Amino acid sequence: MTAATLHAEIGSARQKWPALLWIALLTALWIALTYSFPVITASGAPSAASRLFIHILIALGLWLGLERTGLAPAQRRNVWLAVMIPFTLWLAVIWGAAINGVFRAGISPIPIPLTPLAIFLPVIIGAPILLRSRRLGEVLDATRVVDSDGATLWEGPPLGAPGARPATVLAYDVLVHEAAERSRLHLSSGADAVDMESGVLAASGRLAGVLRVVADVPASAIEGVDTTVHPDGRTDLVAFARWLATRRGDAVRSLRGALTALRSLQRAAEGLA
Questions:
Q1: Which of 70, 235, 254, 272 is deepest in the core (most CB within 10 A)?
Q2: Pairwise CA distance, residues 209 & 141, whole Å
């Protein structure tokens, strides 16, 4: 079974403006200094400063982008460090090589152009790693099922699925479409993910455990997917085709996430067998 993650922190756009204003002021100050004191330009400091400034902008842009994802604060920090530390080390190596003239024509003994390699090698190595996101398809082995106020409906040991992490699941009776609503539910209940089945099973007294797989992150747009199912659970093919036609990109991403989740669920079930 699949679930939607609830972690999302919707920050005000006003919180980003102070940082951008400081960047603009420092940039203006630096331009004024270089024009007022030509010796600074002759020393090569502007070139080094511009590279450092670009690096700071990349780091800031990555952080602001991660704030818009469904990652928890600790995960957001870890992803930022996992990207920026290798990237910074790589730039240090490239800058050192450039200072020593490695990229000058006829200097390097290696018979391949090093400049394109220096530009594209991080992309070739980093892109596959970044694209292998563990958020979609992450297996959650619940230790608690709660309602929207955080009251415990069921509590017990995890089932022990290989690779799963302990989690709290929110039992809700409607499909949650909006990221803001998912954020509100996370704050009110403390849950990691939401589903529509665990609460019914918990109320029956027959629940032995809950194994869920993340199919939608907080930023996912899944509005209208609930209209594609008949009351008895069968797929409404006409409504499904209409949803695909009207939502297009969102629908394709949602289906891709569902397939990823189902594959992860199959592997987890095989590990329990």
A1: 70
A2: 8
